[in-house]
Amino acid sequence: MKKIFLALAGMILAFSAAAAQPTDGKQFITLDKPVAGEPQVLEFFSFYCPHCYDFEQVWHVASAVKEKLPQGTKMTKYHVEFLGPLGKEMTQAWAVAMALGVEDKITAPMFEAVQKTQTIQSVADIRDVFISAGVKGEEYDAAWNSFVVKSLVAQQEKAAADLQLQGVPAMFVNGKYQVNQQGMDGSSLDAFVKDYADTVKYLVEKK
């Protein structure tokens, strides 16, 4: 009797694990044409996108994903140029942030300046955000037209085109899978964030 009970318990646990596993077509979508050479985990966003603001600053989805990723997994974030009056310039500014390694310093104040105070009206205003965040003006100016930044801009544009990006926020894993926000557990915000992070972790580890 005890053996039967243990066997049943094992089956129930196995079923639960299977039920909790992300499903192709629901929590994620396998791309028809995988793109080789893309970052392990790649997030696209725009400072002009209100949903991206919530995703990053309110729901903290990116932070939750980072916490769940296996050790050594790199998460990369690219800005898109197809939103907002300064979309191209903002993508170049994000490339500057990447080149100088100040993405974390820039993200919150830039979102605030674009979405809340609406003080970004020119390229000079973008520069001011960097200066206020502690970046030296001469470092910013030197990076703005540098070869490294131009290469990073091209890299962001190419990835968006190669992955046939339709909108933001969007996250891809290994150039093979796109996370499907619509397929996540919508019973609560916590459940959504957990399901999203678990899905990315599953895809990173997926063979």
TrEMBL record:
CDD domains in UniProt: DsbA_DsbA
Taxonomic lineage: Bacteria, Pseudomonadati, Pseudomonadota, Gammaproteobacteria, Enterobacterales
Signal peptide segment: 1-19
Database matches in InterPro entries: DSBA-like_thioredoxin_dom (IPR001853), DsbA/DsbL (IPR023205), Thiol_disulfide_DsbA (IPR050824), Thioredoxin-like_sf (IPR036249), Thioredoxin_CS (IPR017937), Thioredoxin_domain (IPR013766)
UniProt entry tagged with the keyword Metal-binding: no
Natural source organism: Kosakonia oryziphila
Protein name listed in UniProt: Thiol:disulfide interchange protein
Disulfide-linked positions: 49-52
MF terms in GO: disulfide oxidoreductase activity
